[in-house]
Amino acid sequence: MMGRVTLRNLAAHKIRLVLTAVAVILGVAFVAGTLIFTDSMNKQFDELFSRVGKNVAVDVRAEKVVGGDDDGMAARPVPASVLKALQGVEGVRDPKGNVNGYAAVVGKDGKVVGTAQNGPPQIGANWTAGGSYDLASGRAPQGPGEVVIDAKTAEKGELAVGDVAQVLTAGPPARMTVVGLVDTGNLMGATLTAFDTPTAQKLMLKPGYFSDIQMGSAGPSEQELRDRVAKVLPQGVEAVTGEKLREESKSDVAQMMNFFRTFLLVFALISIFVGAFIIFNTFSMLVAQRTRELALLRAIGAARGQVTRAVIGEAVAVGAVGSTLGLAAGAGLASLLQTQMGDAGQGGLTFTATPVIWSYTVGIVVTVVSAYFPARRAAKTPPVAAMRDDVALPQRSLRIRVALGSLVTLAGAGLIAAGLAGTGDNPAIPVGAGAFGVFVGVAMLGPVISVPVMKVLGAPFARLLGSPGRLARQNALRNPRRTAATAAALMIGLALITTVNVLGATMRASVDERVDSQFGADYLVQSQGAGGVNAEAQQKIKDTPGVVAVSPTYDAKAQIEGKDAFYVAGDLPALAKAARLKLVSGSAAGGPASIMVDEGTAKNRGWKVGTPVPVRFADGGVERLTLSGVYAKSNLVGPRLISAQAHLRHAVRPTVGIMVVDTVAANAATKAALDSAVKAYPNLEVADQATLKDDARKQVDGFVTFLTILLVMSVIIAAVGVVNTLALSVIERTREIGLLRAIGLSRRQLRRMIRLESIMIALFGAVLGMGIGVAFGAALQNALADQGLGVLSVPYGTLLVYLVVAAVIGVLAALWPAWRAGRMDVLKAISTG
What we know:
The chain has 833 residues and is an alpha+beta fold. Strands 4, 5, 6, 7, 8, 9, 10 and 11 form an eight-stranded mixed sheet that branches. The chain has a six-stranded mixed barrel with strand order 16-17-22-19-21-20. A four-stranded antiparallel sheet has the order 3-13-1-14. Helix 20 (689-732) packs parallel to helix 23. The longest helix is centred in the N-terminal third of the chain and has 48 residues, at 242-289. The model is unreliable at 69-74 and 389-394 (pLDDT under 50).
């Protein structure tokens, strides 16, 4: 019987439950979309790496001293003599020497094809017959004036076989004839430019050397062949199996995809968390409205458990339908995410059981848990309530709620503080748990907070808009629990969006302050790719009229006291001047075997001026550099500076990342002259203070926009919650609305009253959320002040816009409930029981 009751209730409350299902759909869509997207990208990466090391049994390469690859140019290369030695090893089949590095092609529009920074690599290689890729058209390169490129790069650059293209490497740009196009499949946005072996060695490594040597097996297992090969290798060169090579290729990508999946799932959980408030609120109102119906069931013999199961049954049905539609919407979201990945997302969607299982698990469990407490309250409805004309569930005291809410809020704030202080192995866990606790605690305190806030927010409406304004304020104050629960969903979304925007504004302000205080050069000439500033361009910069000093800088990794450490190398006095370093002790003029560190590094290591510092460079060589100076922390150059001479003694092919340029006068004419000097090099950019600030702002703005878009989903769910609450409230107040119309309230005034109530609820959520967001942002800035966020900046203009947007959400959310209320028949409304 109770099963039939559940089905009838679902049919009777279709619109209300559909609105509830929307919250489930949106939350599940985020979960399903994330899982489908990452599964699809993982499959594409697996297909890509299936070609890497294909048919390779053993790979011979230099032993890695430090982490990082640096396009194969930092590690010690393998001499060609090793290739000859390998040809005599029993079981070795077809050994091939590979040359890897940076190379890019300039299209007919004069722009470099591919993403230069923080994106898929621009791969340079030597072309070998029978390698990982096949020619789609044309022939293999022969001689220094020929090149083959991948077909997608040719399409983007509007290049074809026979065209002459400008090719960029670590050396001077060269004009080469495209003699072939390579079928690479989906390179996930990377580009491939290949030369014959001697040309590749000259341009990307050095003649007579390879980046590594790969071979197949003529019979022995990979492990056995590796052991045989290892016996003929010189010191500093190692042999690894093809299986290990393929696993290494996949591991970095796997880590990146796992991080990306976790990152997106965090936002999915936020949406589900917000949706839980909506589901809880909806079922609470449905139970309150059906008090007489539930009491009648109790009166005719239904047990408490049966009533609870009936309400839970409705929740299961809503969760199942919402999960199904959410799964379908998730596929669309995954497809949208792929389009945002550009060339890296062209492989189609991959569907596995994982998104299906998690979608239904999350959708149904969250809905049932959110509906459980309203269901329990429904079961407690006394049978005698069925005999009353006007019944409602009793309002409980807020004392326990206030005490628990305060305790949870304080505990959450404590966890955030502990996480930001760096307590534990993974500070993100206490910060996330603390934020969750603060949101739950504030939501519990919401009914208490809402009364004074709604009185203030509603005062202008009551004063300026007459009866509709006063009635709207009274309606919002009538049930503070409902008002708070509805506003809590919007509070969470706007709190997180505000936090992101405060951090973005803080990052922009901090970068501006850092550039103003630490940038002491007139200009920087920097490379937009891994090729750096070549020697020819360096000479042109030096010869530019008005230039008085030019200093090249390098960056690399080394091992210092057994740990990988990043460093910047160059002329130390010039770097000290360019970065406006504040020397704590010592001097920048330390000679060709010197190192400088910031005072934090010196303190942690117990170093003083004159301390010998053993450094193991990427080529395996070890030098004892002398600490010549200690400087105050600089975010511009980092914690370590090494003399250019020491770096160059160990660099296989030195790559200048940035040229520091000082001029007679930093003005428009000098900037134009420098721009003209590097015009022939599309990968180079002349930057002054304004350019550096602008570049940093673009990166920060992109980051903030991306996070804000992800968080908008939670705001949309919150808006659905406002619609749901108002719609149910209109049904609940049917008789009241009829009486108001009977005593003279016009339809227009009635609709205005509902719109104003909606606006007040939305503004309450926005004010509460933005207040929490500013507090979170300030706490994060304070914790990260030593990491470069030294200036707190609150974007008041943006927050004002969000306040207006919240009001607009309130107006839009009230359109349908207000329209429905205005269409009520007055006499039927008054007679409603």
